[in-house]
Amino acid sequence: MCDDDPFPQAGRVRMIVPAPIGRIGTSVPDPEPAMFGQLDPEHVFMMGDNPALPRMPDRPRLVDFLRLRMSDMVIRHLTVSARRALDDGMEEKIVLACLLHDISNGCLVRTDHGYWGAQMIAPYVDPEIAWAVQYHQPLRYFADEAVGYAYPASYDAFFGADFLPPDYICRDAEHARGHRWYMSARLVTLYDTYFFDSGPAFDPEIFTDIIGRHFREPEDGLGFDGSPSAHMWRSVIWPNNFI
Ligand SMILES: [Fe+2]
Ligand SMILES: [Fe+2]
Fold it and tell me: 101 C-alpha vs ligand 1 centroid, how far in Å?
């Protein structure tokens, strides 16, 4: 696929029904019933490449997702976290975990983002990296004074000062505390920064060597290798597909 190739459904109005997980419970009304009434030869539901998004290569690699599907805010957050770990001399597995820790809320699903993100990357990384991504989520809510990690002040602003994490988060944090990889996930929380940190993002290119050594890029591209999480990567390539 090159940039001059036509987009699918050309010449027609491509209607986008927002994913339920990002719409239900919000004030955004469900447009689907009205859109069904608009279907005709000129109006279709979107399937395939969305001309409003940068087109992904046929065999996309991790860096393509970082460059073409993340907001500026998220790529800054991820690259700053990873760069801080790198500058502190952390081992490369930790640097990659930092780089990927919020990949799900960056481009796929916000709720339970650590769990989604871990599943997404699991076929391609050392199990310890996926584990650290999963458990950074519950551990974020619990201080560890021995390593200088405090409950994030930003969470009071985000969720209210009286917020208490749900039972499953408490249970999973407790499980993580007793695990041999605890410090890997804890380090991700330590290098986690706040989204409102100022400063520029780093080009993901600076992590090329680390990605090359620790992320198994599938020959057919992420999304097309038949792995258990291939559909998650395809959903990021085509986030607006009707089905
Ligand atoms: Fe996170
Ligand atoms: Fe984060």
Answer: 6
Q: How far is the CA of 191 from the centre of ligand 2 (A)?
A: 8
CA distance 190 to 183: 10
DSSP secondary structure string for all residues of 105-145:
HHHS--TTHHHHHHHHHGGGS-HHHHHHHHHHHHHTTS-BG
Could you give the CA distance from residue 195 to residue 77 in angstroms, rounded to a whole number? 6
pLDDT one-digit tens code per residue, 111-128: 999 999 999 999 999 999
- Give the whole-angstrom CA distance, residue 12 versus residue 102: 35
Are 125 and 229 in the same domain?
yes
Verify that 159 and 199 share a domain, yes or no: yes
User: Residues 69-107: pLDDT tens digits?
Assistant: 999 899 999 999 999 999 999 999 999 999 999 999 999
pTM greater than 0.90: yes
pLDDT of residue 122: 98
Closest CA to 31 of 43, 40, 20: 20
- What residues does the ion ligand 1 have nearby, CB within 5 Å? 102
Q: How many domains does the chain have?
A: 2
Instruction: Please name the residues in contact with 232: beta carbons below 8 A apart, sequence gap of 6 or more.
Output: 108, 116, 119, 120
Q: Domain containing 40: what range? A: 13-52
Residue 124, token pair as written in the block: 């391609």
How many angstroms does the Cα of residue 82 sit away from the middle of ligand 1? 13
**CATH number reported for the structural domain that contains residue 227 in this entry:** 1.10.3210
189's tokens: 């929380």
